[in-house]
Amino acid sequence: MIAPLQTRAAGSISPTGSTLDAGEGKDGDNDNDNDDDEEDDDEDEDELMPGKTDAAMRTAEEGSKSWLPAIPKPVKRLFDQFPLVTYPPNTAPASSSSTSTASTASPASRTSTDANVGANERPDEHRLYVFTNADAARNGRPSVNPQCLMWQAYLKFRGIEFRTIPSNNHASPDGALPFLLPAGPGGDSEPSCVAPSKLQNWADTNAKHENPEAKISGVLRTYKSLLERNIRDAWLYTVYLDSSNFESIARKAYVNPSTTNPLVRATLAYQLKEAAKDQLQRKETYIDPNDILAEAQQAFKSLSYLLGENDYFIHDSTPCWFDASVFSYTHLILDQTLGWKYNPLASFLEEHPNLVQHRQRILDKYF
User: Fold this and answer.
1) 110: which DSSP letter?
2) pTM for this model (two decimals)
3) Contact 268/254 with Cβ under 8 angstroms?
């Protein structure tokens, strides 16, 4: 689990469903006829066998289970007090058209209300659930997670108005952030959540501004790998595998907000670190920090060359998805409030003033 480390290619883990090919049912009638014949044969055999009384069957059943140790009656009576209960699956967050209850919530319930700050204050706006804190959500500040921040910036580029809501992977319908809950029409109807894999199509449908990527050639596909591999690997290493940064950044952003139980926190921290290791070991079992950082340094150099003297990567006046992707890393790397203890990536970035200016330009205009 790396809630926050969105997995490469697949993005997030989701259950796969089995499908039945239409051709499998073509011989259904013949199969049913054969089954009927077999059932008739079974019935004939049963008629030839001597019948068993209920008492005999119970004795045989008890005999087959006699090797199991008997449960002490006091223990059995105790567990009988707590019958097995199956709860329904978690529902999606309340629709954006729900009535606000934050202002009238009692002090006892205010904690849960604050965790979903701003969720129902303005029913006509979309909500983007991201890794952030309550104060940052109120002020629309950037998320602390690159994947969440990328979509946060991209939706702003497309002119889509929304509110950011603090959340975590466990609250997501598909187990990954970000996800978006569109503004509802009102009443009891609730819109469906938009998963990360569907945010692009949703943005194309609801955006006020034209999508500049429609005119993009395949040039950026080569540079895209620099973000998804070189820079992302360096991010995973410095944030999750460096012990000082893990305590000041990862634990603060992903572990502590999820639970107050120390045992659960320890488990989540271990899972985050292991997930980062798995990602970095997808090619080689040995993790070489020097190689990882050197590749990130070269990636920033290539991105700086691509940007040149332009304001944005494709259109000089309009940022696109690639700008959002670059910004999602450059901003967090240069953000001193994030809690960096060891940050060689900032030194690599500062070697390229145009990338630093690109980050500041987006921050000033959209955040």
Assistant:
1) H
2) 0.69
3) yes
Q: Alpha helices, DSSP H only, in the chain?
A: 28-48, 54-64, 73-80, 110-115, 134-138, 146-157, 199-206, 219-225, 232-236, 243-245, 262-280, 289-307, 321-334, 344-350, 353-366
**Residues 224, 130: Cα–Cα separation, whole Å:** 23
Range 126-206: architecture per CATH: 3-Layer(aba) Sandwich (3.40)
Output the pLDDT for position 158: 93
Amino acid found at 257: P
- Cβ atoms of 270 and 234 within 8 Å: the answer is no
Beta strands 179-181; 126-130: pairing state: antiparallel
Q: How does pLDDT run across 31-43, given as a tens digit for each residue?
A: 444 444 444 444 4
CATH of 216-366, one of 3.40.50.300, 1.20.1050.10, 1.10.760.10, 3.30.360.10: 1.20.1050.10
